[in-house]
Specification:
about 260 residues; alpha/beta; TIM Barrel; 12 helices; about 45% helix; globular; binds phosphoenolpyruvate
Length: about 260
């Protein structure tokens, strides 16, 4: 079985000192564990170098929360994939629902961001998921299919192999409303079958599809036990070292049982 992936998305939280403490606490806690799970910390841009410095000595990796759709140039305030790669940042979250909602990111823009990342051999963590109205209307499969086809399916098989997909039902993000393990499994299986049709069985099998949306220490084990849930994208619960490490331990437990 492939190792699980657990990514902590800190969003726009923590002062520099608090970030340093959180990184050190996670580093110390993981240091004692012989883990197989891929653990990734995704702090705000300003703390990326701090995180990659620690990651060089620790058993976690580092992700940015966004990157520019452009290579370089007169785009004030933007950060390019090249700049991130220069800092040894290997992963980048793309298309989080908050970026789609507050910053107008469309599937077409996200397809460009994915291109910028794969061009510099970074790993896009491509987020998809329906809003509550779409779930209630029963259009959630269509919505997710469109997000995946328009944002990712232009990639060559070699580039697609680098991608991680995060299914995050928007109604479950930061709300305390978690998708049931069955709802998560059903959507993950659907996503894997889309990928299988496009890229074949091996690439679909190897793809990591992780779940995000109010995942916490008390529900992580059950979510990660679903056959098509390959880990989690963790928001609120990644801001406390103890909670985050418990989620990593849940991923480890499931990884060992299988
Ligand atoms: C997220 O924002 O990616 C997320 C999953 O948040 P939370 O865990 O707080 O729901």
């Amino acid at each position: 079985m492939k190792p699980k992936v657990v990514i902590g998305n800190w969003k726009m939280n923590k002062s520099f000192d608090e970030a340093e403490d959180l990184i050190s606490d996670i580093e110390d806690a993981l240091d004692g564990l012989n883990i197989n799970t891929l653990v990734v910390l995704s702090p705000p841009y300003l703390y990326l170098e701090l995180t990659t410095d620690h990651a060089a000595e620790a058993n976690f990796e580092c992700a940015a929360q966004n990157c520019s759709q452009f290579k370089n140039g007169a785009y004030t305030g933007e950060i390019s994939a090249n700049m991130l790669a220069d800092l040894d940042v290997e992963f980048c979250i793309i298309g989080h629902s908050e970026r789609r909602k507050y910053f107008g990111e469309t599937n077409a823009i996200l397809a460009e961001k994915v291109n910028r990342l794969t061009e510099v051999d970074m790993i896009p963590v491509y987020c998809c998921g329906e809003v509550v109205e779409e779930r209630k209307a029963g259009t959630h499969f269509e919505v997710v299919e469109k997000q995946i086809k328009e944002g990712l399916f232009h990639l060559s098989p070699e580039a697609f192999e680098r991608v991680i997909i995060a299914y995050e039902p928007v109604w479950a993000i930061g709300t305390g409303l978690t998708a049931t393990p069955q709802q998560a499994e059903e959507m993950h299986l659907f996503i894997r079958s889309l990928v299988e049709k496009k890229y074949g069985t091996e690439i679909a099998y190897n793809l990591h599809i992780i779940y995000g949306g109010s995942c916490n220490p008390s529900n992580a084990l059950e979510l990660f036990s679903q056959p098509n849930v390959d880990g989690g994208l963790i928001g609120g619960a990644s801001l406390k070292a103890e909670d985050f490490v418990e989620i990593v331990e849940a991923a480890e437990t499931v990884g060992k049982e299988n």
